[in-house]
Amino acid sequence: MITQAMWSLRPLDWMLVIIAGWLGIGCIGVVARHRLRLIAYALFPLSALCSLAIGLAAATVLLMPPERAILPLGLPGLPFHVRVDSLSALFLAVLGMASAGVSIFAAGYFRHGEGTAPGLLCLQYHVFLASMSLVMLSDDAYLFMVAWETMALSSYFLVTSNHHIPEIRRAGYLYLLIAHVGAIAILLCFGVLQAGGGDYTFANMRMQHTGPFWSSAAFLLALVGFGAKAGIVPLHVWLPEAHPAAPSPVSALMSGVMLKTAVYGLLRVGFDLLAQPQPWWGAAMLAVGLITALFGVVFSTVQTDMKRLLAYSSIENIGLIVTAAGLALLFHAYHMPALAALALAACLYHVAAHAMFKSLLFVCTGAVLHATGRRSLGQLGGLIRHMPWVAWLSLIGTLTCAGLPPFAGFVSEWLLLQGFLFTPQLPNSLLHMLIPVAAAVIALIAALAGYTMVKFYGVIFLGQPREASLAQAHDAGRLKRGGMLWLCAMCLALGLVPVQCIQAVGVVGEQLVGHNIGIDVAAHDWWLLAPMSIERASYGPLVFLLGILGCCVLVFLFVRQRYHGRMRRSAAWDCGYPWQTPRMQDTAEGFGQPIRQIFEPLFRMSRTLPQPSDTHPEYHVVIEDHFWYWIYMPIARAVEWVSRAIGVLQHGRIAIYLLYSFVTLVVLLLIVNP
After folding, report:
1. What is the pTM of this model?
2. Which of 330, 374, 418, 443 has the fewest CB atoms within 10 Å, counting from its CB?
3. Which neighbouring-strand residues pair with 621?
4. Predicted confidence band at 624 (pLDDT cuts at 50, 70, 90)?
């Protein structure tokens, strides 16, 4: 009987059971609060199985009609509505596949001394996973906001795990502040969408016709609200602070998955709940995305902290995703469904690719941090000798993040550029002039991303160790390797079989813009990606990979034939001077110096220059964000001034407070009865 009942469950029911399972795992962790071995070696691997299960359940829904349910939870007369369709299923599949690898890694990562008891950390971690899943399953504004705020609070506690450090407490406070500002904007957006009817279900919002003005107001509120969570400029300031402060598995989940919940919200509102998009919405998203991507990649090139570098890289990638979504919305507003589906496929593909490679890079930095105790690039180097597993797996993530073929990052950026090539078909002369500039900016961003990843990988893993203590570094353990291998496999799969992946993504395009690009792609060979036509553009990742491997084999055979199998060893990059020291290597600051000079107006810099009389001369550069001083510091000073002004009313005397109440009552009576 139980088996028959289980087999009769729908995929949506299975997803709800898995979410309840995550919450149950968290509760067990609280009960076994200090039993680290149970939490690490039983609960987190079980969580990874739940992640894999929800990912597989979501993948089955992609080709099925939407499923709905009303939960016996909530308030009287205001129950929770849940729904899974192709859009939410795709994001749930990304969440499941990424969190499976992160949870396996976390099983070998979390230990005593993280600042929070392991059991409490387990609860916060799994509430975070459950709330993100409920955000994607929500079918009414009430459940959406409850899940959204739960996600913000649980991630805040995870960010501030080492709460005894003042910098981490400040980073957590800033994150929570920006998150609540965004939540207010999202709540106002839903208020506009329900059009005063009192029905906050998404089904009711789809039927409302609020007119151009109120539709535009709802779109702008959504852009601000979800943009605050995604980290678009100028609402990005929390991200470079919170990601380095959090434990590495949490940073991986926040960057790889949580930021995508904001992208999900933008797509849900812009393409689903708002029925008649305006062309300027897409242009606005495109502009904001380009500015965010350029800002993020420029700042990532000059970072000297490896986690801050990856955090700014996440800002860059979110900018590319928003750019692709804006291009899709622009095509959709001009009733060009095939091109809208192409741009949307680029957006969704980059969502999946970024979730995998950024999670991989963050867990790799976590392995480096545990092995060395160092986070600064200036204190690392030569780790490929002591941490070969982490080094080679990091290389896959680095190449994917750099957008090089045949990895996943190249596919999404190539699809985005293909979308820009079709923009001359837009019926707007102004866009015809501006879009080529946007395409050139995309190319610049891709080049700078490659530059950043060369710096990231080269300074950490290549060359000589910059400190003697690095010789004691140890490679990642089995559980950590398992998590990294899973994420690495996802990066390779997305890069090598893009045709099959786009066929799944195409179902989402059919739901949102009325065209399934997966059908167009499937019309060609399974190994050849041609989004529109082979004559126009095509890409064969397997052919590219075989070409690379063939070249390597030919070079090997040539060297073996020429030197008859002999091997010679010599020092590399010594330029004829064999007595090099680590001080002669290029530093992270030196690597970023050309970018600092070219893009100097974007930075707020202060330099400490050495003097001729210094016995130990040092050169120190501090790079800050202009937006802190242009926007946030004036707001902070204004709030402080208002607080001091209001504080004058507080005298600490009950008679004064009774006088305030009496005066207020008299004024209200005069207003009501003039």
Report:
1. 0.92
2. 443
3. 607
4. confident
The CA distances from residue 50 to 16, 126, 638, in Å, are 11, 11, 47
Cα–Cα dist 605/626, whole Å: 10
Q: Which of 404, 397, 411, 364 is nearest to 488 (CA)?
A: 397
Q: How far from 516 is each of 504, 519, 540, CA to CA, in Å? A: 9, 6, 21
The DSSP letter of residue 1 is -
Dist CA 287 CA 329 (whole Å): 13
What are the φ/ψ torsions at residue 62 (nearest 5 degrees)?
-55, -35
Confirm if 95 and 133 have CB atoms less than 8 A apart.
yes
- Could you give the CA distance from residue 277 to residue 334 in angstroms, rounded to a whole number? 9
C-beta separation of 67 from 11 below 8 A? yes
Q: Which residue type is seen at 28? A: I
Q: Calculate mean pLDDT across residues 228-243.
A: 91
Token couple for 5 = 């009942």
C-alpha span between 305 and 307 (Å, rounded): 6
Instruction: Read off the pLDDT of residues 528-541 as tens digits, 9 standing for 90 and up.
Output: 777 776 767 777 88
H-only helix segments in 402-497: 408-421, 429-461, 478-496
CA–CA dist 402, 613 (Å, integer):
43
| Average predicted confidence (pLDDT) for the chain | 86
DSSP state of 473: -
Backbone angles phi, psi at 399, to 5 degrees: -65, -35
Residue 435 corresponds to which tokens in the numbers above?
A: 């879009």
Using an 8 Å Cβ cutoff, are 476 and 389 in contact?
A: yes
List b or e across 576-611, with b for residues whose CB sees 16 or more CB atoms inside 10 angstroms: eeeeeeeeebebbbebbeebbeebeebbeeeeeeee
**Rounded Cα distance, 367 and 496, in Å:** 27
Give the C-alpha separation, 555 to 481, whole Å: 31
Environment class of 549 (CB within 10 Å of its CB; exposed 0-12, middle 13-18, buried 19+): exposed
Alpha-carbon gap, residue 332 to 346, rounded angstroms: 14
Gap between the Cα atoms of 456 and 397, Å rounded = 11
Residue found under tokens 């003039």: 674
Helices (H), 334-387: 337-372
According to DSSP, residue 254 is labeled I
Question: How much is the average pLDDT of 667-673?
Answer: 79
Asked whether the beta carbons of 336 and 425 are under 8 A apart, the reply is yes
Residue 417's CB is within 10 A of a number of other CB atoms, namely: 15
Tell me phi and psi for residue 83, to 5 degrees. Answer: -155, 140
Radius of gyration over alpha carbons of the chain, in Å?
A: 27
Return the closest-CA partner of residue 592 out of 313, 303, 329, 317.
303
